[in-house]
Design goal:
The protein is mainly alpha-helical and about 150 residues long. Helices cover about 75% and strands about 0% of the residues.
Length: about 150
């Protein structure tokens, strides 16, 4: 079963169960997937990886909005609760990110592959990392590790 089929099945089940939080969350994801599929930049098939990219993009937006809400002092608001639920629920559909040790191993490996020696080579290293490990590695952590290894 594809990821999109799983999302559709869960959406139908949430509607049957009258679980408004899950149904609203999945409805938004389905909408984002439809918009992405209809965009002129999309061509090809709607694979699990593409669906995960759309979900990751949405989760990133929700996290940013949640951060702004919390900094504004509305941690206990309904929208903050809704956003926390969505981030938690949708994280199940995303691949888990590498931990710090795995990230360091990957960065060391890529530094050796591209022959990076100084901080000037950071762009080449990060570009190679994101090409190979996008969605599986935390870019912020990889940047920090890259900075420490190249300094």
């Amino acid at each position: 079963m594809t990821l999109l089929e799983t999302i559709n099945n869960r959406f139908v089940q949430a509607r049957r169960d009258r679980n408004k939080d899950v149904a609203d969350c999945l409805k938004m994801v389905k909408s984002r997937i439809s918009l992405y599929k209809a965009s002129p930049s999309f061509s090809g098939e709607l694979t699990d990886e593409v669906v995960q990219q759309v979900i990751a993009s949405y989760v990133k937006e929700v996290r940013k909005a949640l951060n702004e809400i919390e900094h504004g002092g509305a941690q206990d608001s309904d929208i903050a609760r809704k956003y926390r639920f969505e981030v938690e629920y949708l994280s199940e559909f995303l691949p888990s990110l590498m931990d710090a040790r795995e990230t360091e191993d990957v960065v060391r490996k890529v530094i050796a592959e591209v022959g990076a020696l100084t901080r000037r080579d950071k762009g080449k290293v990060m570009s190679a990392i994101m090409r190979k490990y996008k969605g599986r590695i935390d870019p912020k952590l990889a940047t920090e590790v890259c900075d420490s290894l190249l300094s």
